[in-house]
Design brief:
This protein has 131 residues and is of the alpha+beta class. The protein contains one helix and nine strands; from the N terminus they run E-E-E-E-E-E-E-E-E-H.
Length: 131
């Protein structure tokens, strides 16, 4: 009796599973972001090394009254203020954060400052004329 085998056959003395590549870090693509209420921006997390076995991350906002963030890194401004958005690796070993400002614009700040200056000079003028 004769048997014929077709195909490739490989043998191994090892029953061990391949070693998974561990995450060594995570970073966010933008240093800081200023957005207006109702505006959106997407932050991108980069896991290192690029061949890491588990590249899943979670996103959180330190102040959901200021910005909301979904599980893809899309951030939406809610109200004026400051919040920190943090991305964390699935195993929790690594995290990166970015500060987000919403609704704050230099012209608004300048207008408030000028209004305070005008108000101060009016009060000062009123005090001088009152005497």
């Amino acid at each position: 009796m004769m048997a014929t085998l077709f195909g490739n056959v490989s043998c191994s003395d090892s029953d061990e599973e391949p070693i998974a590549v561990a995450v060594t870090g995570v970073k966010v693509d933008k240093e800081s972001v200023a957005i207006k209420p109702d505006a959106e921006v997407t932050l991108v997390a980069t896991i290192t090394p690029s061949d890491a076995a588990n590249k899943e991350v979670s996103w959180t906002s330190s102040n959901t009254g200021v910005v909301l963030v979904d599980n893809t890194g899309k951030v939406k401004g809610v109200a004026e203020g400051e919040a920190t958005v943090t991305v964390k690796t699935a195993d929790g070993s690594f995290a990166a954060s970015r500060v987000l400002l919403t609704g704050v614009q230099w012209p608004t700040i300048i207008r408030v400052f000028l209004s305070m200056c005008v108000l101060s000079s009016l009060v000062f003028h009123w005090n001088l004329t009152k005497s």
